[in-house]
Write a structure and sequence with these properties.
The structure holds two protein chains of two kinds.
Chain A: E1 2-5, H1 17-45, H2 53-63, E2 68-70, H3 75-83, E3 95-100, E4 109-114, H4 116-135, H5 137-140, E5 151-153, E6 160-162, H6 178-186
Helix pairs in contact in A: 1-2, 1-4
Chain B: H1 3-19, H2 25-47, H3 54-64, H4 67-81, H5 98-113, H6 117-128, H7 136-149, H8 151-168, H9 174-186, E1 193-203, E2 206-215, E3 219-223, H10 229-256, H11 258-261, E4 268-270, E5 275-281, E6 284-295, E7 298-310, H12 315-330
Antiparallel strand pairs in B: 1-2, 1-7, 2-3, 3-4, 5-6, 6-7
């Protein structure tokens, strides 16, 4: 899924095809979810105006300092999946697209923007991802520092929730977070 | 973009389109168009300030990624969207491995080459049955292979029986398969079926019953045409009358290279470009078409009256189709 993680230096082992295939398969497995998350984030950042496929990849390279590079052609199945996931009648639409020809552009492009539903799900996925990384901190011997103020993770479903007076329940699982808010504020 | 660049890109997109799962046509077109734009953007970036050449297009295609991986990803989405279904076996997860599929395909093609009609019926009957454990895509694709192997033989000797089988024994919509074959094998790039309808085509005194497909490029008629005076006249008339409007199709054929020339036409393509004296009455559109008729050393111009009757049980659809046809003719 993700073509190369640039800081991987080639070693003697990497020159062997079997090992390379194994690494590729490992990357593909671990990065599938990350790719969805980062693409959704880039689309979310683009706001209501939206962003088109080619630009998403450019943003991705810039934002991740060329660390994460998705194979270009594989972006479109992912976008299609974000746009319409699930069997007929039970679809989930995380993003929407609109074909627009902008001034000065010769071509019509599909601009993707996040839906309200997509926004909620994104926060949940983001929370799940961070919590998962946090859970392996000790085991893997790394320290994750989140630059997030005024947010908390739902202890039940890991949804990332902004701390606000109006929000007392997790919008994903419905868990009561009133007590948790007080603890975070005290800290 | 020069013709050569366009050729490379169109060929790539065409292969992609032929391999994409047969889903909603609009969605497929959207995806292909999106990929076209992406590759052109990428080629322009690769070219920098220089004009885009075929080298840049080819490099952009290479950079875009493996066709196999992209198609696999799309197929996976399709599988997720069409989970296990009971009943007729349509939309089922395949339990038929690719090796068996290829073996069966080879066997079927051998039967077509040897024109063993009875055996072909038997195999197709088995393919269409739910217990063949094939997905709808695999079943149709296999029948598509039979069609591609020998289109004339398929249309003359096999297809009618298929339709009866689909409708009778399996209660499947025969037009579903017809549309699949049309979309997969006979449409040219950028061509989209706008509507299809059941109807009659009358050319002077000859009446042909069948199904019409109105695309954004032409009108395709598919019906039972026996070898008779009607056919001769019809086909000759088609060849002559089409000449002017053929240019567009021919330029596309050239752009697509020799592959397209070998591509059989599912039905008969019919240009409405030089239609005039258009009249609409109830479910009928009547118009005249002029064509050049070669007679030994001279060319004579003839006029033929064409009558298309829309015979759809749904009156709203009938009305919409008539309006669409009239609009096409008037434009």
């Amino acid at each position: 899924m993700i073509k190369r993680v640039k800081n991987l230096t080639s070693t003697a082992l990497l020159s062997q095809e079997t090992y390379r295939d194994y690494i590729a398969s490992f990357e593909s497995e671990t990065n599938r979810g990350i790719a969805t998350l980062v693409i959704l984030k880039i689309i979310k950042n683009s706001g209501e105006n939206g962003i088109y496929g080619y630009k998403i990849l450019q943003e991705l390279e810039a934002e991740t300092k060329n660390m994460l590079v998705i194979e270009q052609g594989r972006l479109y199945p992912m976008l299609r999946k974000l746009e319409n996931w699930g069997p007929k009648g039970k679809e989930l639409r995380l993003v929407r697209s609109k074909s627009i020809t902008k001034e000065g552009s010769r071509r019509a492009r599909n601009y993707y923007s996040i839906t309200e539903e997509g926004n909620m799900i994104f926060h949940h996925l983001e929370g799940v991802f961070f919590t998962m990384l946090q859970s392996i901190e000790e085991l893997m011997n790394f320290k994750l520092e989140l630059e997030r103020e005024n947010t908390l993770f739902c202890p039940n479903c890991s949804n990332l929730i902004p701390i606000s007076e109006d929000i007392n329940y997790c919008e994903i699982c419905g868990n009561n977070i009133m007590d948790l808010k007080k603890t975070v504020k005290r800290k | 973009m020069s013709k050569q660049h366009s050729e490379i890109l169109e060929e790539y997109l065409n292969i992609l389109k032929s391999k994409l799962p047969s889903w909603n046509l609009q969605e497929m077109d959207k995806t292909v168009e999106e990929i076209r734009t992406h590759i052109l953007d990428l080629a322009e970036d690769l070219a920098g300030d220089d004009p885009v050449t075929e080298i840049h297009i080819q490099a952009a295609i290479d950079e875009f990624g493996s066709l196999e991986d992209i198609v696999n990803d799309f197929n996976n989405i399709k599988r997720e969207k069409e989970p296990l279904d009971s009943g007729d076996g349509l939309g089922q997860e395949s339990t038929f491995d690719s090796k068996s599929f290829l073996t069966l395909k080879q066997e079927v093609l051998q039967l077509v080459r040897e024109k063993r009609k009875k055996q072909i019926y038997q195999v197709v009957e088995w393919i269409l049955k739910g217990d063949s454990k094939m997905t709808k895509e695999e079943r149709y694709s296999l029948i598509g292979e039979v069609f591609m192997a020998n289109p004339d033989y398929f249309m003359d000797k096999i297809y009618k029986k298929f339709q009866k089988m689909l409708l009778g024994a399996y209660q499947l919509n025969p037009y579903d398969l017809e549309r699949y074959l049309m979309e997969k094998f006979t449409l040219i790039p950028g061509e989209v079926i706008q509507t299809s309808f059941q109807g009659k085509l009358q050319l002077s005194i000859h009446v042909l019953k069948g199904r019409f497909y109105v695309t954004n490029r032409r009108l395709i008629f598919h019906g039972e045409i026996k070898e008779s005076v009607a056919v001769l006249m019809f086909t000759r008339f088609m060849a002559q009358a089409l000449e002017a409007a053929k240019e567009e199709v021919q330029s596309l054929q050239i752009a697509m290279g020799p592959k397209y020339s070998e591509k059989p036409c599912f039905g008969f393509q019919y240009s409405l470009e030089n239609g005039h004296n258009i009249r609409v009455r109830n479910n009928r559109v009547t118009f005249n078409i002029a064509y050049d008729f070669q007679k030994k050393y001279t060319v004579k111009r003839k006029e033929v009256k064409v009558k298309i009757s829309v015979e759809e049980p749904d009156l709203t659809k009938q009305l919409q189709t008539i309006q669409m046809l009239t609009q096409i003719l008037q434009n």
